Amino acid sequence: MSTITIHRPEELSLPLRRAWHRAMDESPDYANPFLAPEFAAGIGRHRGGARVAVLHQGEEAVGFLPYERSALGVGRAIGLGLSDAQALVHRPGVTWDTRELLRACGLSVFEFDHLVEEQKPFGPYVTGTFASPAIDLKDGDCASYAEWLRGAYPGLAKTTLKKERRLARDLGEMRFVFDERDPGALRTLMRWKSAQYRRTGRMDRFARPWIVELVDQLFQVREEHFTGVLSVVYAGDRPVAAHFGPRSRTVFAPWFTAYDPDLQYYSPGLIMHLRMAEAAGRDGVRLMDLGRGDKEWKDWLKTRELRVGEGFAVRPHPVATAHRLWRRPVRGLRNTVLAHPRLREPADRLLKTVGTLRTTGRMGSGAGMGAGMGSGAGPRRNADRQRGASAQGTANPPGNANAGSGRNANVQGTVSARGNAAPRRER
Q: Is there a contact between 292 and 302 (Cβ–Cβ < 8 Å)?
């Protein structure tokens, strides 16, 4: 077993951050920006229990596990509920004894819900694996976005381009900015997203000041392994849809997407994701990880699926036993509901009813049911489970909320599932 030292993520030395980056570079499994030290440091500035366990072989740092720890020694993957990728990032060939690792971290249990598939030492503790749809991107070798769209998504191209032309005709010339640096556009996105959470009965993540501050902070990060990217679709001078999420050199992780609800007829959420995919490919990104979650728009866009694990790594301890007895049934019930349309759709309708009561002032703003369905352990960016272009379409990321934090962001205002879109396909 390697020597293990424990650090605050925002206080890691420059040599340790460089060693972490090197481990990311040496395996495509760890190229996701949610696995970067910059994301862990961002969480660490707002979460007192955030830590990083550093594995050493001799004088060399070869592995990094970011986590959060409670006073009772209950651990969880850092940013659980917001991140769409979790792992002990390590150099090739490095392994570890999970119980010794937990003991060194002062943990009796370590909970995760987006563990990358490569993490073999955690394998015995995985209680379920889930699809995380992804888009393989190529160099933008087409002369125009329209040509790229017709080549990549012929079934969606006709309808999407038609709606884009109508949007330009009705509101003004349409333009897309992949890397918008206007903080005002970010505030607009958070305002739209907050309203969507309330309208659909979900927990409003942006009602939590620390999440607002985290997004503001990550928006300023411009590093090779983590850059906060704000993208905006404009019609004339009016913002129509916006997205914020992180990218590394080769992986882009959709996170928070929202749009002007008055314009849902134009399918702005789908337009946003297609525009982002084309622009990211031109900018060198090779994978767009949409995050865990069963959504029709993901089926349309994905080219393949990654696999992520959910579970609890434990060592013998009364706290670990109690935590699993409490958390595992909650996760199991949530996963059962999300996996079966006959259960998921009534649950969505109930949440929308709660959202209507909340937004019309007939229910207190804190009385929503989102925490039960949309956020098992903390805020979940993909908690929204709307399908297609339902009247209250959705927009994740991060977070899955529960079945894909996050990643990835739920798309608000997608093309109608049965009328305007191509047949369902894996993205």
A: no
